[in-house]
Amino acid sequence: MRVGADGEVVACDLSGTMLEHVRRNAASAGLQNIETLECAADELDQTLAPFDAAMCRLGLMLFPSPGEALDAVQRALKPGARFAALVFTTPANNPFMAQPMAILLRHAGKAPPAPGQPGIFALGGNGVLERLMNDSGLGDVKTQHVRAQLVLPSASDALQLMQEAAGAYRAVVADLDVAARLKAWNDVYECLKQFEVGEGFKTQLELIIGSGAKPG
Q1: What is the pLDDT of residue 155?
Q2: I want to staple 50 with a disulfide (CB 3.0 to 4.6 A). Which of 39, 60, 69, 78 is the partner?
Q3: What is the DSSP string of 5-45?
Q4: Do residues 210 and 87 touch, judged by C-beta distance below 8 A?
Q5: Domains of the chain by range and CATH?
Q6: Helices (H), 84-148
Q7: Which of 3, 141, 14, 125 is nearest to 70 (CA)?
Q8: Predicted local distance difference test score (pLDDT) of residue 178
Q9: Helix or strand or coil: residue 138?
């Protein structure tokens, strides 16, 4: 692990399930220096020791106010420490993410998030993440588009991943009754089957990595 034997890592998330996966993975790897906190980044305890670095993986676009989240993270960083975020780009370049979300929104009778509202593609437009980081006061801001391949045994595994790990998707249909939720997820499963190939399930994700440094 990059922090070394004497370093410490704090993982925070609103999902207790996600944090349980962190604890299990850390235990299986024999790591004892990972602490978990069930909270949002903008709720971090300011009495925590300042950190050398921070990252947010596929979450910054879901905050009601990403700018406030960045302010909170910077308060927890040492001067000169870097912050990095990973976000999805656009719906057109992420059909695996966009098409199931559209299906769930249709079943729930909801409209897609308006510009400026939280959503999985809220920070994926051209220059949006870079402007957000600059406006928050971070320096030496850099962004890079990357593509990642998602490979799973089957569409069923992809559906389970989406149901268990993607809270934004569960939230869309949370108010539906059991039968309506089942119908929505069944339609998502039929959609995901398009990504099945001979050797399993395979799709591409397009993302942006943005990073910047807290002023010294």
Answers
A1: 96
A2: 78
A3: TT--EEEEES-HHHHHHHHHHHHHTT---EEEEES-GGG--
A4: yes
A5: 40-213 (3.40.50.150)
A6: 95-108, 128-135
A7: 141
A8: 96
A9: coil
Give the residue carrying structure tokens 């397009």.
206
- Report whether 215 contacts 141 (CB < 8 A): no
Give Cβ neighbours of residue 1 (< 8 Å, ≥ 6 apart). Answer: 7, 9, 31, 33
- Identify each DSSP E strand in 50-138 by its residue range: 51-57, 77-88
Residues of the chain where predicted confidence (pLDDT) is lower than 50: none
Residue with tokens 């051209």, as numbered in its chain: 126
The Cα–Cα gap between 151 and 143 comes to 25
167's enclosing H/E stretch is helix 167-172
List beta partners, residue 145: 208
Q: State CA 50 to chain mean position distance.
A: 23
**Nearest-angstrom CA–CA distance, 163 and 194:** 18
Residue 4's pLDDT is what?
A: 66
As a whole number of angstroms, the distance between CA 170 and CA 166 comes to: 7
pLDDT of residue 110: 94
Q: How many helices (H) and strands (E) does the chain have?
A: 7, 7
Cross-strand bridge partners of residue 85: 56, 210
Q: Which of 31, 58, 61 is nearest to 128 (CA)?
A: 61
**Single-letter code of the amino acid located at 180:** A
* Residue 216: per-residue pLDDT: 84
pLDDT confidence of residue 117: 87
